[in-house]
Write a structure and sequence with these properties.
The complex is a heterodimer of chains A (233) and B (424). Chain A has 233 residues and is an alpha/beta fold. Chain A has one domain: Rossmann fold (3-Layer(aba) Sandwich). Chain A has a 6-stranded mixed beta sheet, with helices on both faces. The longest helix of chain A is centred in the last third of the chain and has 18 residues. Chain B contains 16 helices and 14 strands. With 424 residues, chain B is an alpha+beta fold. Chain B folds into 2 domains: 194 residues, no CATH class; 181 residues, no CATH class. In chain B, the strands form 3 sheets. Chain B has a 6-stranded mixed β-barrel. Chain B has a two-stranded antiparallel ribbon with strand order 2-10. Chain B is elongated, with a radius of gyration of 31 Å. The mean pLDDT of chain B is 85. The chains are: A alpha/beta (233), B alpha+beta (424). At the A-B interface, helix 2, strand 6 and helix 3 of A face helix 1, helix 12, helix 13 and helix 16 of B.
C-alpha cells in the first residue's frame, strides 16, 4: 500500500424513507482508503456496511456529507459519469456471484471489456490473463451452471478484475462458499491485491474474511465503532 | 456487443422463444383476421355486384328512379351500338346486358290447364353466345342442383325450391306470364332444363334464369335491355375507379332534362350499398385496430414480464458500468430483433392460412339458409397488399412498446434498488 488516498469519506450520512419517518443507515462516517488496501467493513446485519459499499461503488448517493472516490464526489456525479467510473475503475463481487447464466465463463469475463469497446484480440488476451489469475483457463467454455460455487466466485473475481480496476468492492464474497473454497477465493484476491495493487474493500461478518484483511473497520448502527490496521511483516 | 446480445437471445429461451412465439402467434392472427375481414366484406360486396348491382350500372334516368320495380318500359334502347361504344370508351370495364323482370310462372298440365302457378323474379343473361363470363360470374355451374345448363333457345333454369313448389321436373314446360316493354301481356313458353340453388333465400325463392335473347323475345325488347352492368377487369370493386368512370360516363350521357338519357351508377350508389362500401374500410380499420390493440396489450405484457424477470441482470450490468441508457437501448434492440423475426414467422404462417382460406373458403351455407339479404354461401379470405405488412404493426411496435414501458422501470428505480433486487 502507498500513501495515495483514493477514497475519502467525510461526515457521510445516508437516510432511507421509512413510513412517515426515515431510517438512518449511515450516521456520520469519516474514513479514507489508500491505494492497495485490503480492508473489511465488519458488522452485523443493518450496521450499514452494504450501504457504505454501494456509495463507494457509486450505486447510491450520500444524503449528507461527502464521498470522494478517485477524486470525484459521488453526490455530484451524473448517472453517466458514475457509470463511466464503474466501467473503468470499480469492480464488484457478490455473495451470489451474479454471473450471466446464458454466457460462458469466457463471455462473462469478457463483458466489462465489451463495454469499453476494446478490440477483439486485446480483449481475448485480457480475458485469458484474468482467468489465469484465478486458475480457470480450462473452464472458458463452461456455463455457470456447470461450475462449483468456488469456481463461480473465481469467475466473478476474474470479471471484476479483467478491466484492472482501482477498487474492488466485495459484498459477503464467501457467504455461499465452504471453508476450503472461501480460503481459495480469499487467497486469490489477496494475491491480486499484492500483485496489481488493487484496493479491495469487503463487507463481511465472516471470520474467514476477517482473518485475511489488513484493515478492520467495525461498523455499528451506521457509525464506525473501531478502525484497526494490522501491521504486516 | 450486438453479437453478444444475439448470443444471449438465442441461448435464453425465456428471453427469446416465448416472446417469439407470442409475437408470431399475434402476427399470424392479425394477418388471418385482416384477410378474413377483407374477404368477408369484399365477398358480400362482390356477391351483390355479380347478382344485382355490377361494379357500375347503366340505366335510363327514369328506370334508375324506379329500379326496384325493374320497369322495363323504361329500358335502354339501341344496346348493340351502345355496348360497342362504351366498351371502346371504358376498356377497363367488361359490360354485359341484363334484363330483370317479374312475372307469373304458370305450369300447365297435359290438357293445357294450369296445374300450378307462382310469382317469380327473372333474370335474362347471356348464356348461349358461347361467352361463359356471365354464367361463371353468377356461379351457375356449381349452383346447378339438377338437370343441365341451357343449351338451346327457350330453355330455362329455375330455383330448386321454386321447382319443387310447382312440381316441375327437367323437360317440363312452363309459361312466363308477364308484361312486355310496351305494356302488353307477355306469354312465353320455356322448357325447364335444370334447377339451381344459390343458398340464399333471396335468390332461391322464385328465381328464373333464361338466356337474354329469349327474354327479349318474351318481353318484346328487341335491341333493348333493362340494365347494362359493368365489371372491373381487376375482378374487385374499387370505389374510386367506379366513381371516376361513372362521372366520366355521366358527363357524356346524362341529362337532367331527358328521362331516357343514360345514367351510370357505381355500386355504392345502389341498393343502400353505399353504407357497406363506405363503412367497409372504416369497419375493417376499427376491427383491425381493436385486434391490434389487444395483441399489443398481450405483447406489452410479455415484454413487461420479460423486463421484470431481468431486473437482476440489469442491476449487475449497471454495476459493471453499463449506462442505464445503454441497457435500455439493448432491451429495445433485443425486442426489435424478436419483433422482426417473430413478425416474419407470423406473416409466413398467417399468409399460409390466408391463402388456404382465399382458395377454399369456409362454407357458411347452413347459417345463411334463412338470410333474406344476398350473401354468398362460401366466404373466402382476401389477401391484399396491406395483408403483407399489417402484421408488422402489432409484431414489431407492440413488442417494442411493451419493452419501452417495461424499461422505464430501470429509470424509475435507483441503481441501488435494482441492485437489491439483484441480490434478492
Amino acid at each position: 500500500m502507498n500513501d495515495e488516498v483514493i477514497i475519502k469519506i467525510e461526515g457521510l450520512k445516508k437516510h432511507f424513507p421509512m413510513g412517515s419517518g426515515r431510517f438512518t443507515a449511515l450516521n456520520g462516517i469519516d474514513l479514507s482508503f489508500g491505494r492497495g488496501e485490503f480492508a473489511g467493513l465488519i458488522g452485523p446485519s443493518g450496521s450499514g456496511k452494504t450501504t457504505l459499499l454501494n456509495i463507494i461503488g457509486t450505486l447510491d448517493v450520500p444524503s449528507e456529507g461527502k464521498a470522494i472516490i478517485l477524486g470525484e464526489s459521488v453526490g455530484d456525479l451524473s448517472a453517466g459519469a458514475s457509470a463511466s467510473m464503474r466501467k473503468s475503475q470499480l469492480g464488484f463481487i457478490f455473495q451470489s456471484y451474479n454471473l450471466f447464466q446464458v454466457y460462458t465463463v469466457f463471455e462473462n469475463v469478457e463483458f466489462p471489456l465489451l463495454l469499453q469497446n476494446i478490440d477483439a484480440s486485446k480483449r481475448k488476451k485480457m480475458v485469458l490473463d484474468a482467468l489465469e489469475w484465478v486458475g480457470l483457463t480450462d473452464k472458458i467454455k463452461s456455463k455457470p451452471a456447470q461450475l462449483s460455487g468456488g469456481e463461480s466466485q473465481r469467475v466473478a473475481i476474474a470479471r471484476s478484475m479483467v478491466k484492472r480496476p482501482s477498487i474492488v468492492l466485495a459484498d459477503e464474497p464467501t457467504a455461499n462458499l465452504d471453508a476450503a473454497n472461501s480460503h481459495n477465493v480469499l487467497q486469490t484476491m489477496e494475491k491480486l491485491n499484492r500483485e496489481l495493487h488493487t484496493t479491495f474493500i469487503f463487507a463481511t461478518h465472516d471470520d474467514k474474511v476477517i482473518g485475511y484483511v489488513r484493515r478492520k473497520i467495525f461498523l455499528f448502527d451506521g457509525k464506525v465503532a473501531k478502525d484497526e490496521k494490522i501491521e504486516q511483516n | 456487443m450486438i453479437r453478444f446480445l444475439f448470443k444471449g437471445l438465442l441461448r435464453d429461451r425465456h428471453r427469446s422463444l416465448l416472446p417469439f412465439i407470442v409475437t408470431a402467434t399475434g402476427v399470424m392472427l392479425t394477418v388471418v383476421f385482416h384477410s378474413w375481414i377483407t374477404g368477408v366484406i369484399g365477398n358480400s360486396i362482390e356477391f351483390n355486384a355479380r347478382f344485382a348491382a355490377g361494379h357500375v350500372k347503366i340505366m335510363t334516368r327514369a328506370y334508375s328512379e324506379n329500379a326496384a320495380q325493374t320497369p322495363n318500359d323504361l329500358a335502354i334502347l339501341g344496346t348493340d351500338t351502345l355496348l360497342n361504344v362504351i366498351s371502346a370508351q371504358f376498356p377497363e370495364m367488361d359490360f354485359v346486358e341484363r334484363i330483370y323482370f317479374a312475372g307469373l310462372i304458370d305450369v300447365p298440365d297435359h290438357t293445357g290447364e294450369t296445374r300450378a302457378q307462382g310469382p317469380s323474379m327473372g333474370m335474362g343473361i347471356d348464356m348461349l353466345s358461347g361467352n361463359q363470363a356471365e354464367i361463371e360470374r353468377l356461379n351457375i355451374p356449381s349452383s346447378l342442383k339438377s338437370g343441365s345448363l341451357p343449351g338451346k333457345r327457350r330453355e330455362v333454369l329455375i330455383s330448386n325450391a321454386f321447382a319443387e313448389k310447382l312440381g316441375l321436373e327437367s323437360g317440363d314446360t312452363l309459361t312466363l306470364v308477364g308484361s312486355t316493354m310496351y305494356g302488353e301481356l307477355a306469354l312465353y313458353n320455356f322448357t325447364l332444363c335444370g334447377t339451381i340453388e344459390f343458398g340464399t333465400t333471396a335468390l332461391d325463392r322464385g328465381t328464373v334464369i333464361a338466356d337474354i335473347k329469349d327474354v327479349r323475345e318474351a318481353l318484346n325488347m328487341d335491341d333493348a335491355t333493362g340494365e347494362i352492368l359493368g365489371f372491373s377487369r381487376t375482378g374487385y370493386y374499387d370505389h374510386e375507379e367506379a366513381s371516376l368512370i361513372a362521372n366520366r360516363f355521366n358527363k357524356s350521357y346524362a341529362s337532367e332534362r331527358d328521362e331516357f338519357s343514360l345514367i351510370m351508377k357505381s355500386l355504392a350508389e345502389q341498393n343502400n350499398m353505399g353504407f357497406l362500401v363506405e363503412y367497409s374500410g372504416t369497419l375493417q380499420g376499427i376491427l383491425v385496430f381493436v385486434f391490434i390493440m389487444a395483441m399489443s396489450l398481450i405483447l406489452w405484457n410479455a415484454g413487461l414480464l420479460g423486463g421484470l424477470r431481468r431486473y437482476g441482470e440489469f442491476g449487475m450490468r449497471l454495476a459493471i458500468g453499463e449506462g442505464k441508457g445503454h441497457v435500455y437501448k439493448t432491451m429495445l434492440l433485443e425486442s426489435l430483433i424478436i419483433g422482426i423475426l417473430g413478425s416474419m414467422a407470423g406473416i409466413i404462417a398467417g399468409m399460409g392460412i390466408s391463402f388456404y382460406l382465399q382458395r377454399y373458403g369456409i362454407d357458411l351455407g347452413s347459417m345463411m339458409k334463412n338470410a333474406s339479404i344476398m350473401m354468398p354461401q362460401v366466404f373466402r379470405a382476401r389477401i391484399t397488399a396491406t395483408t403483407w405488412y399489417i402484421g408488422f404493426i402489432p409484431g414489431v411496435f407492440s413488442a417494442l412498446f411493451g419493452t419501452m414501458l417495461a424499461g422505464i422501470g430501470i429509470y424509475k428505480r435507483q441503481t441501488a434498488q435494482l441492485f437489491k433486487e439483484l441480490e434478492a
